[in-house]
Specification:
Blueprint lengths: L11 E5 L4 E6 L4 H8 L4 H4 L4 E4 L5 H8 L4 E4 L1 H18 L7 H6 L7 H11 L3 H18 L4 H14 L6 H8 L1 H5 L1 H4 L4 H16 L6 H11 L1
Parallel strand pairs: 3-4
Antiparallel strand pairs: 1-2
Helix pairs in contact: 1-3, 4-7, 4-9, 7-8
Amino acid sequence: MSKRKGHQNFVTVIGDIEAGKLIEVIDSQTQVEIIETLTQQPLEVREQIEEVSVDMWGGFPKIVEKVFPNAVIVIDRFHVMKAVNEELNKIRKQARVFDRGSKFILLKNGGELTLEETTKLEQILQHSQRLRKAYEWKEEFRAIYEKHLTVEEGQRQIEQWLHQARDVYCEAITTIRHHLNGICNYFRNRTTNGVMEGINNRIKLIKRQAYGFTNFTNFRERLLACF
């Protein structure tokens, strides 16, 4: 996450998603510096890590391989769905559907739509057959995550989705194929990054209360103290 809103100077936040606590904040987003910081922990501690839940930043696999030799990478399902939703929203714009609330209704989980929203959804989908297909495939993909599957079953269903949805989706399919193993590892223990999102939100609140931090050491110590 960024140290200051609107600036591209990022820090890497690491937490314990079982205990729901902050472990470390690293003043970098480069592989070398993250690895250097994390390897200060004893090897016998790092060998106990079984899973590391991450977003789809390309640097994470090398870091996990170097630092946590026994861990598998789990790509957070929220970030995978985000990739699908972003392309769905592009398709909405290409179909020139700009009805008020159309983006919200299309991206919302279908099972959570109210009766009024369901009626509005049907009106939106009547604008474009491609948009209708994209929405239906988005819901099909989300449904896979809701099933209790083995890793092998999950991979088989996702690969089938990739084949069937290729006529509508392009960028999301490329992204999912690139991270397929990590995405399918979700079905091992259904691990998500939700706890880290909560930690990140709390960090943002602390930043706002302090009107931002210009000194990283003070920023890090404040966060560790607050957690």
